[in-house]
Protein backbone atom coordinates (compact mmCIF):
# COMPACT_ATOMS: atom_id res chain seq x y z
CA UNK A 1 0.00 0.00 0.00
CA UNK A 2 1.43 3.31 -1.05
CA UNK A 3 2.13 5.78 1.71
CA UNK A 4 0.23 9.04 1.53
CA UNK A 5 2.35 11.98 0.56
CA UNK A 6 2.65 14.66 3.22
CA UNK A 7 1.17 17.99 2.19
CA UNK A 8 3.75 20.64 1.33
CA UNK A 9 4.55 23.04 4.10
CA UNK A 10 5.22 26.71 3.70
CA UNK A 11 8.72 27.86 4.57
CA UNK A 12 9.14 29.68 7.88
CA UNK A 13 9.53 33.44 7.78
CA UNK A 14 13.08 34.80 7.70
CA UNK A 15 14.83 36.05 10.84
CA UNK A 16 13.47 39.26 12.33
CA UNK A 17 14.86 42.61 11.25
CA UNK A 18 16.50 43.55 14.51
CA UNK A 19 17.63 40.16 15.71
CA UNK A 20 18.79 37.30 13.51
CA UNK A 21 17.73 34.36 15.67
CA UNK A 22 20.08 31.39 15.91
CA UNK A 23 19.79 28.03 17.63
CA UNK A 24 20.27 29.69 21.03
CA UNK A 25 20.21 33.23 22.47
CA UNK A 26 24.02 33.19 22.51
CA UNK A 27 24.14 32.98 18.71
CA UNK A 28 21.83 35.95 18.09
CA UNK A 29 23.20 38.63 15.79
CA UNK A 30 22.08 42.25 15.76
CA UNK A 31 21.30 43.87 12.44
CA UNK A 32 23.80 46.77 12.06
CA UNK A 33 21.19 48.92 10.32
CA UNK A 34 18.90 48.49 13.32
CA UNK A 35 21.70 49.53 15.70
CA UNK A 36 22.45 52.57 13.53
CA UNK A 37 18.78 53.58 13.52
CA UNK A 38 18.58 53.45 17.32
CA UNK A 39 21.71 55.59 17.60
CA UNK A 40 20.29 58.12 15.11
CA UNK A 41 16.97 58.19 16.98
CA UNK A 42 18.68 58.88 20.32
CA UNK A 43 20.80 61.62 18.78
CA UNK A 44 17.80 63.35 17.19
CA UNK A 45 15.76 63.20 20.40
CA UNK A 46 18.52 64.82 22.47
CA UNK A 47 20.13 67.19 19.97
CA UNK A 48 18.95 70.83 19.99
CA UNK A 49 19.14 71.06 16.19
CA UNK A 50 18.29 68.83 13.25
CA UNK A 51 21.10 66.44 12.32
CA UNK A 52 21.83 64.93 8.91
CA UNK A 53 19.07 62.78 7.43
CA UNK A 54 20.00 59.08 7.58
CA UNK A 55 18.31 58.20 4.31
CA UNK A 56 20.36 55.09 3.57
CA UNK A 57 19.45 53.51 6.90
CA UNK A 58 15.77 54.43 6.61
CA UNK A 59 15.48 53.17 3.03
CA UNK A 60 17.25 49.90 3.85
CA UNK A 61 15.05 49.11 6.85
CA UNK A 62 11.87 50.19 5.06
CA UNK A 63 12.67 47.87 2.16
CA UNK A 64 13.45 45.07 4.61
CA UNK A 65 10.13 45.61 6.36
CA UNK A 66 8.20 45.11 3.14
CA UNK A 67 10.11 41.91 2.39
CA UNK A 68 9.60 40.64 5.93
CA UNK A 69 5.87 41.27 5.83
CA UNK A 70 5.57 39.40 2.52
CA UNK A 71 7.42 36.38 3.96
CA UNK A 72 5.21 36.36 7.04
CA UNK A 73 2.08 36.49 4.89
CA UNK A 74 3.31 33.60 2.74
CA UNK A 75 4.29 31.55 5.80
CA UNK A 76 0.78 31.85 7.24
CA UNK A 77 -0.94 30.53 4.11
CA UNK A 78 -2.25 27.00 3.59
CA UNK A 79 -0.41 24.16 5.28
CA UNK A 80 2.16 26.49 6.85
CA UNK A 81 -0.30 27.97 9.34
CA UNK A 82 0.11 25.23 11.96
CA UNK A 83 3.92 25.12 11.75
CA UNK A 84 4.28 28.90 12.02
CA UNK A 85 1.43 29.58 14.42
CA UNK A 86 3.82 30.41 17.24
CA UNK A 87 6.78 31.93 15.36
CA UNK A 88 4.91 34.24 12.97
CA UNK A 89 3.51 36.52 15.73
CA UNK A 90 7.05 36.96 17.05
CA UNK A 91 8.20 38.13 13.64
CA UNK A 92 5.20 40.44 13.41
CA UNK A 93 6.12 41.97 16.77
CA UNK A 94 9.65 42.53 15.50
CA UNK A 95 8.32 44.24 12.37
CA UNK A 96 6.12 46.49 14.52
CA UNK A 97 9.10 47.36 16.72
CA UNK A 98 11.23 48.42 13.76
CA UNK A 99 8.38 50.39 12.21
CA UNK A 100 7.78 52.20 15.51
CA UNK A 101 11.47 53.19 15.73
CA UNK A 102 11.40 54.48 12.13
CA UNK A 103 8.28 56.54 12.82
CA UNK A 104 9.80 57.90 16.05
CA UNK A 105 12.92 58.98 14.16
CA UNK A 106 10.88 60.85 11.54
CA UNK A 107 8.61 62.46 14.17
CA UNK A 108 11.59 63.65 16.24
CA UNK A 109 12.99 65.41 13.18
CA UNK A 110 9.65 66.93 12.15
CA UNK A 111 9.09 68.41 15.61
CA UNK A 112 12.40 70.28 15.44
CA UNK A 113 11.93 71.31 11.82
CA UNK A 114 8.55 72.91 12.48
CA UNK A 115 9.77 74.51 15.70
CA UNK A 116 12.85 76.09 14.07
CA UNK A 117 11.68 76.35 10.45
CA UNK A 118 12.39 80.06 10.07
CA UNK A 119 15.91 79.75 11.50
CA UNK A 120 17.28 77.00 9.27
CA UNK A 121 20.34 78.38 7.51
CA UNK A 122 21.82 76.91 4.33
CA UNK A 123 23.91 74.41 6.31
CA UNK A 124 20.92 73.14 8.27
CA UNK A 125 18.80 73.12 5.09
CA UNK A 126 21.30 70.76 3.46
CA UNK A 127 20.84 68.27 6.31
CA UNK A 128 17.14 67.83 5.51
CA UNK A 129 15.73 65.23 3.17
CA UNK A 130 13.97 66.47 0.00
CA UNK A 131 10.58 65.69 1.57
CA UNK A 132 11.51 67.61 4.72
CA UNK A 133 12.62 70.60 2.66
CA UNK A 134 9.28 70.61 0.85
CA UNK A 135 7.40 70.35 4.16
CA UNK A 136 9.39 73.19 5.70
CA UNK A 137 8.86 75.51 2.72
CA UNK A 138 5.13 74.83 2.57
CA UNK A 139 4.77 75.23 6.33
CA UNK A 140 6.42 78.65 6.26
CA UNK A 141 4.29 79.66 3.32
CA UNK A 142 1.08 78.59 5.07
CA UNK A 143 2.03 80.40 8.28
CA UNK A 144 2.86 83.57 6.37
CA UNK A 145 -0.43 83.51 4.47
CA UNK A 146 -2.37 82.81 7.67
CA UNK A 147 -0.82 85.76 9.50
CA UNK A 148 -1.47 88.01 6.53
CA UNK A 149 -5.12 86.92 6.27
CA UNK A 150 -5.67 87.00 10.04
CA UNK A 151 -4.45 90.52 10.82
CA UNK A 152 -1.72 91.94 8.56
CA UNK A 153 -4.15 92.78 5.76
CA UNK A 154 -6.10 94.99 8.17
CA UNK A 155 -3.05 97.06 9.09
CA UNK A 156 -1.93 100.17 7.24
CA UNK A 157 0.13 99.34 4.12
CA UNK A 158 3.53 100.17 5.66
CA UNK A 159 2.93 97.49 8.31
CA UNK A 160 1.74 94.76 5.96
CA UNK A 161 5.17 93.81 4.73
CA UNK A 162 6.00 90.14 5.21
CA UNK A 163 8.03 87.49 3.45
CA UNK A 164 5.51 85.36 1.54
CA UNK A 165 8.09 83.74 -0.72
CA UNK A 166 8.93 80.85 1.63
CA UNK A 167 8.20 78.29 -1.10
CA UNK A 168 11.53 79.20 -2.70
CA UNK A 169 13.50 79.90 0.48
CA UNK A 170 16.59 77.88 1.17
CA UNK A 171 17.23 80.38 3.98
CA UNK A 172 13.73 81.46 5.11
CA UNK A 173 13.23 85.21 5.49
CA UNK A 174 12.67 87.43 8.47
CA UNK A 175 8.93 86.81 8.53
CA UNK A 176 9.48 83.10 9.18
CA UNK A 177 11.87 83.92 12.02
CA UNK A 178 9.18 85.97 13.71
CA UNK A 179 6.97 82.97 14.58
CA UNK A 180 9.57 80.23 15.02
CA UNK A 181 12.40 79.84 17.50
CA UNK A 182 16.11 79.24 16.88
CA UNK A 183 17.63 75.98 18.16
CA UNK A 184 18.98 76.24 21.70
CA UNK A 185 22.62 75.56 20.83
CA UNK A 186 23.83 76.58 24.29
CA UNK A 187 21.93 73.74 25.96
CA UNK A 188 23.91 71.02 27.69
CA UNK A 189 23.73 67.47 26.35
CA UNK A 190 24.81 64.02 27.50
CA UNK A 191 27.45 62.62 25.16
CA UNK A 192 29.36 59.34 24.95
CA UNK A 193 32.85 59.49 23.44
CA UNK A 194 33.24 56.96 20.62
CA UNK A 195 37.00 57.43 20.10
CA UNK A 196 39.94 59.05 21.89
CA UNK A 197 39.94 62.80 21.23
CA UNK A 198 42.53 64.10 23.70
CA UNK A 199 42.18 67.58 25.18
CA UNK A 200 39.18 69.41 23.73
CA UNK A 201 37.92 72.94 24.35
CA UNK A 202 34.43 72.46 25.77
CA UNK A 203 33.57 76.00 26.89
CA UNK A 204 34.79 79.59 26.75
CA UNK A 205 34.84 81.66 29.90
CA UNK A 206 33.09 84.88 28.88
CA UNK A 207 34.03 86.56 32.17
CA UNK A 208 37.73 85.97 31.56
CA UNK A 209 39.11 89.10 29.88
CA UNK A 210 42.09 87.12 28.65
CA UNK A 211 39.82 84.93 26.57
CA UNK A 212 40.37 81.86 28.73
CA UNK A 213 38.73 78.57 27.79
CA UNK A 214 37.91 75.33 29.55
CA UNK A 215 39.30 72.06 28.25
CA UNK A 216 38.75 68.46 29.18
CA UNK A 217 40.15 65.15 28.07
CA UNK A 218 37.74 63.00 26.07
CA UNK A 219 38.68 59.32 26.08
CA UNK A 220 36.79 56.53 24.32
CA UNK A 221 33.88 55.28 26.41
CA UNK A 222 33.71 58.36 28.64
CA UNK A 223 30.37 60.06 29.29
CA UNK A 224 30.24 63.84 29.68
CA UNK A 225 27.71 66.64 30.03
CA UNK A 226 28.83 69.30 27.55
CA UNK A 227 27.56 72.52 26.03
CA UNK A 228 26.32 71.51 22.60
CA UNK A 229 27.59 74.58 20.75
CA UNK A 230 31.17 73.78 21.77
CA UNK A 231 31.09 70.20 20.45
CA UNK A 232 28.86 70.47 17.35
CA UNK A 233 31.60 69.37 14.92
CA UNK A 234 32.30 66.29 17.06
CA UNK A 235 28.62 65.34 17.00
CA UNK A 236 28.50 65.78 13.22
CA UNK A 237 31.54 63.55 12.75
CA UNK A 238 30.23 60.83 15.07
CA UNK A 239 33.05 61.24 17.59
CA UNK A 240 30.40 62.04 20.20
CA UNK A 241 27.11 60.10 20.46
CA UNK A 242 24.23 61.91 22.15
CA UNK A 243 21.84 59.96 24.35
TrEMBL record:
Record-linked InterPro entries: GINS_A (IPR021151), GINS_bundle-like_dom_sf (IPR036224), GINS_Sld5 (IPR008591), SLD5_C (IPR031633), Sld5_GINS_A (IPR038749)
Q: Where in the cell is it found?
A: Nucleus
Q: Which Pfam families match?
A: Sld5, SLD5_C
GO CC annotations on file: GINS complex
| Keywords per UniProt | DNA replication, Nucleus
The answer to keyword Nucleus applying to this record is yes
Q: Which SUPFAM superfamilies match?
A: GINS helical bundle-like, PriA/YqbF domain
Chain intervals with Pro residues compositional bias: 8-17
Q: Where is this region: Disordered?
A: 1-28
Gene3D superfamilies according to UniProt: 1.20.58.1030, 3.40.5.60
* Swiss-Prot/TrEMBL GO biological process terms: DNA-templated DNA replication; double-strand break repair via break-induced replication
| Domain DNA replication complex GINS protein SLD5 C-terminal: start-end pairs | 183-242
Domain GINS subunit: where? 90-147
- Function, as annotated: The GINS complex plays an essential role in the initiation of DNA replication.
Q: Which PANTHER family match?
A: DNA REPLICATION COMPLEX GINS PROTEIN SLD5, SLD5 PROTEIN
Of which family is this protein a member?
Belongs to the GINS4/SLD5 family.
Q: Give the protein name, as stated in the record.
A: DNA replication complex GINS protein SLD5
